[in-house]
Predict the structure.
Amino acid sequence: MPRRLREHSGTGIYHVMLRGINRQDIFECPDDYLLFLRILEHLVYRHDEGGAVLPPLCTIYAYCLMNNHVHLLIREREENISEIMKRVGVSYVRYYNGKYERKGPLFEDRFRSEAVNSIEYFMTLLRYIHQNPVKSGLVREVRDYQWSSWSEYEGQSAHPVICNTCSVLKRLDAENVYEWVTMPVNDDYILDVDSKTNSVITDDELKSYIVGTTGLLTSQDISALPKLERNKILKDLCNYGASVRQIARVTGVAYGVVYRLDKKS
């Protein structure tokens, strides 16, 4: 299936995800997380050899470092998003491979991104990125996760301060900012760890594929099949190029079930 061209953002703002190759962990200890944050910091706070301040390469609004992937909410400035992510990837892989005495790529060959062209979607992504560790079961509360930028929004970061929080906080009631970030997010169409950016499959096309290859009357009939037969079909849909969320939405099978099968396919 052909690779989809990267969508251009009219605002220069992107939601970016960088994931370990074969879903492998990219952070082994706290020092690894901190080094990655230092790399991001050097994109924002730059100086020449004489100590003079240089323009930032980008503006970062939010980040979340998970064990095997990273989410960023970022705006292009002196460099475009591809150049920025190349800098990040090269710097971190050099560090990681040297430290752990390994060779070869660490990240998937192409970072994932989606354009952010409205303030409404920007604010939705800000909540979604910070809720990632909670939805993954790593912590109970957004503020409990130490490797996201939420501590910067609460003014309590123990890590390098790299985010432009002022642009966001001026839009929110300071007393209710935590209540706001924990509000439920409809993440059906948000770029996620399971999203297949080279997929151009619509829901209708996926439904037609299911009916045509399985002999079922509707795509929803998959959920009523015996487990082994159901799982075989779901694995085929993962290999076909549909995302986990799309498969779960179209078939009615629980997201967690499809996600586990996708990791095995």
